[in-house]
TrEMBL record:
Pfam families cross-referenced by the UniProt entry: TPR_12
Organism of this sequence: Eremomyces bilateralis CBS 781.70
Superkingdom to which the source organism belongs: Eukaryota
Name of the molecule in the record: Kinesin light chain
InterPro entries (UniProt xref): TPR-like_helical_dom_sf
Length: 87
C-alpha cells in the first residue's frame, strides 16, 4: 500500500495518497508500536500529502507530532531532528 501511495504522490494525487497512508499508519502502529521510526516516516508522507492538498493546518500539526516523536526516538541532537527543526 505504501508503494501505491507514493505512486499517487508522484502523479499529484495527494488526497488518494493520504487515504491509503492513514490506514497503513494505524495498522503499523498495531504491529510495531506507536513510536516506530517507520511510522514517523509514513506520518511525514501524510503531512506532505495534506500540505499539497491544501490542508496546511493539519499538515503542520502532524509534522509537529513527527518532530516530537523523532526527538523521543533519536534524541534532540540527532541529525534527523536538527534537519526538521531548521525548516
Amino acid at each position: 500500500m505504501a508503494e501505491l501511495a507514493v505512486a499517487c504522490q508522484h502523479r499529484h494525487r495527494w488526497d488518494q495518497s493520504a487515504e491509503l497512508l492513514i490506514p497503513l499508519t494505524e495498522m503499523s502502529k498495531t504491529v510495531f508500536g506507536p513510536k516506530h521510526p517507520d511510522i514517523v516516516l509514513t506520518m511525514e508522507k501524510i503531512a506532505i500529502a495534506w500540505e499539497y492538498h491544501g490542508r496546511l493546518e493539519d499538515a503542520i500539526y502532524l509534522m509537529e507530532e513527527c518532530v516530537e516523536l523523532k526527538k523521543h526516538i533519536y534524541g534532540v541532537c540527532h541529525n534527523t531532528h536538527v534537519a526538521l527543526a531548521s525548516r
